[in-house]
Amino acid sequence: MAEPLICLKALTRVFHTDEVETHAIADIHFGVPRGEYVCIAGPSGSGKTTLLSIIGLLDTPTSGTYLLDNQPVSGLSGPERARVRNERIGFVFQSFNLIGDLTVAENVELPLTYRPMSSAERQRRVAAALERVGMAHRGRHLPSQLSGGQQQRVALARAVAGEPLLLLADEPTGNLDSKNGDAVMALLRDLHRAGTTILMVTHNPEYARQAQRTIHLFDGRVVEETVHERVA
Amino acid sequence: MSALLRDLRFAARVLAKSPSYTFVAVFTLALGIGANTAIFSTVNAVLLRPLPYAQPERLVVLTETQPKFEEMSVAYLNYVDYRQQNSTFVDMGAFNDASVNITGKGEPERLKAQQFSQSVLPVLGVEPLLGRNFLAEEDRPRGPKAVILTHGFWQRRFAGDPDIVGKPITLDGAPWDVVGVMPPDFRFFGTSDVIIPIGLRADEPNYQSRGSHPGITVVGRLKPDVTIEQATADLRAVGDGLAKIHEQVQDTRARLQDMHEDLVEDLREGILLLYGAVMFVLLITAANVANLMLARAMTRQKEMRIRAALGAGRWRLVRQLLVESSLLGLVGGAMGLLVALWGVDLLAAARPQAIEVLGPIEVDAPVLAYTLAVALGTGLLFGLVPAIYASRQDLAQALKEADHRATAVGGHLRVRNLLVVVEVALALVLLVGAGLSLRGFAKLADVDPGFSPGDVLTMELSLPTTRYKTAAEVRRFWTELERRVAEIPGVVSVSASSGLPFAGASESSFLMAGEPRVIANTKMAVAYFVDAGHFETLKIPLHAGRTFTAHDTEETPLGLVIDQALADKFFPGQNPVGQQLQEGMSDKGIAEIVGVVGHVAHYGLDGPQRTQYQMYYAYRQLPAPIQARIASGMTLSVRTQGEPLGYATQVRAAVAAVDPEQPVFAVQTLEQYIADSVAPRRFTSALLSVFAALALVLAAVGLYATMAHSVAQRTHELGVRMALGAQPRHVVWLVVRQGLVLVAAGAALGLAGALALTRLMTSLLTQQVSPADPATYVGVTLLLVAIGLLATYIPAQRATRIDPMVALRQE
């Protein structure tokens, strides 16, 4: 068994609204080995996005342990979490979240600007990432000039440009038609084949089956794990 | 009309629904409009309000001019001839300033007097409130002594006694009959306590010499349809006739000026400068409120779209928003009026005497009308751009929610940025103006006046000729007083003098030894008449020869001490001591230079010195009649150890010991004279600084509001950046950089504007500071950038607290 990249033990996240205490996730235990492609599934409100946010260091657990690459990360300070996010994690969101005032190339370059790196190296990585998603020819365009599928490809390029250990994708095909959705999923498969660890939230069972394993959440708890056949 | 009322009602409801927004807008407007109204009340009082005399546009002021003197007072006999021989005036009257002592009932007191010819009040079209004007026989030498009281003095000294007319009062030891009391609002070239006839002195030597110009100004009323040019030509023809008869009138010409212009010409630049400054503040205010309205327009886009979808035309939407902004302007104007009333009180308390001459600064009907116009105009000004933007509706977007997938800068944000740039630019111009004037002020403190003004107490005494009839009596008084004051513990030295730097002095003519006595050879110098110890008391340095001693008396040859400027000009490379000058004050004609002292800044710490040279007479050496006249009114200067005013009581006691009935007046330090000399400039500089500070605060608030709104709008974008690993410093720099770009653009624009506009404020600048003073420009720019940085840093810091999860959920 490969060394786990992600190790979650008794992870809990409680939200307090007025006097109501809501357990978004409770007692989550699982690990993700380096290079695995994992899908998190479950109905709305089951805690998928909360779990992904904690794994992506956008949120902190109320209790429990989170080891990323064998390092405890749940107690890190804000700037430390930002550094880890920047250097080790790539994000793909359902709504792309590109910045409208920046060109495609600038959007892809954005996370690289937050780490010490020469301009030449940044340009090289941007070019490679855009090439990888087939968007090299649209580098100077603004996001508003692209279709939804193209925008999500750019978002994917932005996520991988920093060569992260972990790629988190939250409903990456949620805003796309089936053709563009398929294309994005194909790109994720390619990335996985290239060694990227992927954690994806999706409602689509067909896309879920493309992962190696699906973790099912219900009411904030892991209720089932399904191991899929290796994707060809 | 009913639609407008509906808009008005709706506007009131909308404003009431957003109390914070309304409060900030009204408060900002109140500051801008209030400051503007307060200064306009000064503009109105000084520049616009007609003088309080009948048909004031026909009143002119007559002075005289010579090739070497642009403006001189009028020789009394010339006035008499101008009045008799002109054909263009209804009449003219002569006046000058004087002082008298009042004794008898109550404390002895030195009074400020004006001497009027009998014709002054008819020329002005003013009549006394009680009693009458002077009679012709009272306005001539040895005529009955008649006095008119001013309203303030009548109230203060006589508690408004309604039966005062006809009663005698004691002035300079003699009884004078009160013949009238002036109305309360009467002002004429300043204020005074009493008015006495000028003709009583008409037989005095300096009134009988056409070469003497004893401070007389003439006011004249032009005949209907006569222009100043025609009247000038008329008086110059009279003057030409006089010049043929009287050698002293050669080269002397009449000079006429509109009376209002004469009163305000020295004030105009400073007041218009302040008015310009508050207009800048008002523009910044308008830009700030426009900014607020633009931000608010964003939140009302859906309302506007619904209205447009329901058929409201663009003009209808614009009108509704303009009604809202006008209502804001009017409420801000009403609050501004309260600020103005407070500001006017402050101005009234702090204004220099020069402004007081023109009457009260008050919020009267013209000022109220102006405030209404400014309030409405400002409302329309700041409402127009937001109204136009808000009325541009894309109906296709109507009722849809905004697309958050990509964050883009809207056109309204560019307008808001532009408004901030303009605000910063205007604030910088004001800051540079205030900085230059303050720096000039600071530099003035470094100017060496040529003497040491610290630790010197001064007070004026005027000995009445009725009790001090001879030069010997006058001399005895001063000798005894100086002796007693010198014995006061802590007094270092004491001296009496007629004329002090910054406090006024005569000017006297002189010629070089051997030069023919013709006007072309005449030179002028400030003439001080001093007692022994003067140079030591003022610490004016002796450069050569000696100063005066008690041995310089009428029996010894007339000696002069000259200043270094006179020595350098007329005795270059020579030792002036022992050389002679022809002087014009004594009947001795020739005086020997006994010493050379440093030049003192007589007319002010900087600026043109009207007369370049200075000469000092030992007053005891002058012929007895001249000595008695000069020494009857002198200033006592006392150098002390420590706070000079602390010695005032003891010096007053010394005066009382010599003559219990002798009042003293103008008790102040020599430093106060210097402070008074810069009072108008200090007043304008202080106000300019207040407005610049206000502009800076308003611009900073505008920048802060824009950046805070920008951060709020960019929450999602900033959340994305933070999710991608942006550190707090990256977010701070992103926001601060955006703000600094606006500040830099505004600063560049402001610096260019300041370079162009500060050349208009020469009256506030000293010789030591140029309008392009680099230190000032750099200093205020750094200050502006620092404040801008602070205004930007606060929202930037807040941006770092954005929770990326919350931001991402906004999608």
From TrEMBL, chain A:
SMART domains: AAA
Pfam families, per database record: ABC_tran
GO annotation, cellular component aspect: membrane protein complex; plasma membrane
Gene Ontology MF, one: ATP hydrolysis activity
Family annotation (InterPro entries): AAA+_ATPase (IPR003593), ABC_transporter-like_ATP-bd (IPR003439), ABC_transporter-like_CS (IPR017871), ABC_transpr_LolD-like (IPR015854), MacB-like_ATP-bd (IPR017911), P-loop_NTPase (IPR027417)
Alphabetic keyword roster: ATP-binding, Nucleotide-binding, Transport
Domain ABC transporter: 6-232
CDD domains in the record: ABC_MJ0796_LolCDE_FtsE
Family according to the record: Belongs to the ABC transporter superfamily. Macrolide exporter (TC 3.A.1.122) family.
Descriptive protein name: Putative ABC transport system ATP-binding protein
Organism: Nannocystis exedens
Taxonomic classification: Bacteria, Pseudomonadati, Myxococcota, Polyangia, Nannocystales
TrEMBL record, chain B:
A GO molecular-function descriptor: transmembrane transporter activity
Chain ranges of the MacB-like periplasmic core domain: 22-237, 481-598
Transmembrane intervals: 21-48, 272-295, 321-344, 367-390, 418-438, 686-705, 731-757, 777-796
Subcellular location: Cell membrane
A GO CC term assigned to this protein in UniProt: plasma membrane
Residue span(s) of domain ABC3 transporter permease C-terminal: 278-394, 690-804
Main location: membrane
Membrane topology field: Multi-pass membrane protein
Keyword Cell membrane carried by entry: yes
Superkingdom as given in the UniProt entry: Bacteria
Alphabetic keyword roster: Cell membrane, Membrane, Transmembrane, Transmembrane helix
Protein family membership: Belongs to the ABC-4 integral membrane protein family.
Protein name, as recorded: Putative ABC transport system permease protein
Species the sequence originates in: Nannocystis exedens
Organismal lineage: Bacteria, Pseudomonadati, Myxococcota, Polyangia, Nannocystales
